[in-house]
Amino acid sequence: MKCIELNMLPEDCVSIIISLTSPLDACRATLVSRAFRSAAESNVAWEKFLPSDYEDIVSRSITSLKFSSKKELYLHLCNPILIDGGRKSFKLDKSSGKKSYVLSSRELSITWSDRPEYWSWKPSLKSRFLEVAELRMISWLEIEGKIRTHMLSPNTMYRAYLLINITHRAHGLDLLPSDTFLEMGNQIISANTAYLSCKDKKKHQMECLFYGNRTQRTKSRVIEGDERFARERDDGWMEIELGEFFSGDEEGDQEVKMSLREIKGYQLKGGLVIEGIEVRPK
């Protein structure tokens, strides 16, 4: 059987072959030869790497995206863009093309966030969004976000993270760990506990001493599960993992609920800043 060298194939055929690989492989193919470079940068190849609903996503961007090729559009989308009136952020993973979203605090359900005595809405230089939610003082902390699986890349493991900061006036946040839940359909698939901030150990010890007996009585009400802690990010925020889930195939569509609650301790809490919830590939 006679073998045919790839560089002898028509450029369209090579483009189709490259489109069956990955964006990272396509970039590597540009180094093989001049012919490969042309095929690897073609619209035929890069349209396959874009999500199937890319035209809808581009139309929802709050800024006009200018591009002369599908590869250029792909690279644009590898940097976060604001969509849906600036209430969500969208981006593609550069090496895989998988989709990720950040739901702004305005997209979340935050109990009593419409009451200025409990929550304030303010701009933040660190945030990608116009405003963030800052907890002034409350005893009932409940935050929930929702996303549908058809918005995500199919057959992909995702993790959800609450994006937060803690002000210097923070108090009462970690006397008890918060409960985190991730629900898919009507089934809870992840339930754990999380500490929002334990940076100031002396302050935490003083609060535990002050609330003492109440803390011990209410600890028995906290769900059992892995204890998670806020982790610092490169963008100036901290993140707490809420759970992970599998997006399923393109035919199915389920609602995913992601939440954090601390409603058992009844102590006053304050100084928590919410940017949103990020849903990204694992």
Automatic annotation (TrEMBL):
UniProt xrefs under InterPro entries: F-box-like_dom_sf, F-box_dom, PP2-like
Pfam assignment, any one: F-box
F-box domain: residues covered: 3-49
Top-level lineage group: Eukaryota
Protein name: F-box domain-containing protein
SMART domains given in the database record: FBOX (SM00256)
